[in-house]
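Hi R.,

As promised, here are both runs. First protein below:
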Amino acid sequence: MNEQKAIRLCLKHRDPAGFEVLVVQNRRRAFFHARALLGNSEDAADACQDAFVRAFAAMPRLEKLDRFYPWFNRILRNVCLNMLARKKTRADHLRNSLVQTTSHHSDASPSDLMELKETQEEVWRVLDQLSVEHREILTLKYVHRFSYGEIAETLGIPKGTVMSRLYSARYAFRNKHEQIHTVCKSRIDHGP
């Protein structure tokens, strides 16, 4: 069943089978987006479950829906931002890599895999210290590989704003990365 048929079933008949298709098609993307916003897998899974429940309840009230994910993402984003507001603190850092690297690099040596894992952890440590807005847009662009147009549609902002936010987010990432390296180098040079 394609997305349009699944949407029609949900809008007209509140069909759980149609909604299940939408969940299956979008759960991975939703999880990674929520994880980028919240900073850990457990909260991301909870947020996704809550957002899908809310979406299922809200769909019959819609007259029309062309694409599911941009609409759903607004619900997911609000759930995540509400969780952040309630908690007031996020997890200290992301321990697990976003993507299971070993399954994609089976021909790599163990030292290559270890280096790749360390690089991913370093990237997530830096991302974790950025604002939610910067983390979100960098994840959409570089993890989901969304185009500027897809990011604009997903976040409900103009394309020019996407480009501006990406520029700011890249700049913030670069500065935070350099700051972390400076602190690490100083600790190595001068001891703990």
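And here is the second one, sequence first, then its structure tokens:
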Amino acid sequence: MKKQDFIKAVAAKASLSQDAVSKALTSMIGVVTAELKAGREVNITGFGAFKVSKRAARNGVNPRTGASIKIPAMKSPVFRAGKTLKEDVR
């Protein structure tokens, strides 16, 4: 499902306009992004948690040339599904 399809589905289910749902979704994504940038976790009860995972620097191999390369340390966003979501999907 693409973003526009998701917006249409939520708008139909909630009896809202697509514009209102689009603004709410964009705002939600912005808030989650800002919180993760600040190093904080976002927990949505019944859905899941967004957090930042730190990856250590490591050595890798360029598959094309076989040359050894240094992969720098980085932060990566992680989503962990909540219990309710897991049970509903099963």
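A quick note on the second one: Residues 62 and 68 are 6 Å apart (CA to CA). Let me know what you think.

Best,
J.
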